[in-house]
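Researcher: I'm preparing a figure for a lab meeting and need a structural model of a single chain. I don't have an experimental structure, so a prediction will have to do for now. The sequence is pasted below. Please return the structure as tokens so I can convert it later.
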Amino acid sequence: MARLPGIGANDPGQKNRITRRTRTGKRRLKNGSRGPQLFSFDLLLDAVVIGVLLGCFYAAVSLGLSISFGLLDVPHLAHPAFLVAASYGVFLLNDRYDIDPLLAGLLITPLLFVFGMAAYRLYYETFEKRGSDAGVRGIAFFFGIAFIIEVLIILQFGVDQRSVTASYIGKAWRIGDMRIPFRLVVAFVVAVGLTTLLTLYLSRTFMGRAIRAVAQDQEALRLMGANPVRIKQWAFGIATAVLGIAGALLIIVAPVDATLDRTYIGRTFCIVVMAGLGSMTGTLVAAIILGVAETIVLTLFGASWAPAISFAMLLGVLAVRPQGLFGRRS
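Model: Understood. Here is the structure written out token by token.
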């Protein structure tokens, strides 16, 4: 059965509290008092608060895809596999050298940047350089990379889940009856900071503005003396480097396994498309909307319905506003 990070196997207190409140509601009805049978304002408040924190975590793991797919128009299906691989890199540093997961994510960021630049160069020379069908071939290319990464992780680490240790993991902040896991608070702070930094970089630096323009008019960039291929290679390196921090958050929020990329491929693409391709702020807002919606559905109908909500919301947004919530009309 599917579960949401931060609510489920890793956070029994949250689940038990929901169960207790549901049973209390049933007892009140048996005693003749008025009130909801299976839902209450307390549960709604819990769902909204946890949903906002969870949504910020979703934003952090989607920002790289917002650059590679949203701005560069690269069909980066291997994004979740890169994310999981980064999580295992954080696990190695934490397990062998007892390095804090967030610091470990920062340490592997330069390696991921170089790896991302190399991966885009290989994609460009093999597919994008050769013609208009690069998109279709690129899907197969990145799908193959994702499959290879998954197999390599299984061969190296097996199929068991891996987790990290830190002082803030396993603890919670209590406000009345509400229990907020510290790991989701960490994800919230890091996601907001990361979104702010990327937004400032893309809007206030020459290279950032060039990255925004490269998918729109490459000829104009050439006339300005810029090399579109190098700009896209640099941008893809940034999109991959961001996964160092995102991968650290992934393994902080919940244990990881080699097949976890299959869970996030739908969520990340839905968030990026819902936000409007290339919008960093939109990615954060769309992810929060998705996080709140998933936790409410989880509370009302159970975890098995939660994964479907992302695709339902995506279809609804595309039907009403095809360019996304923050996208511009062409």
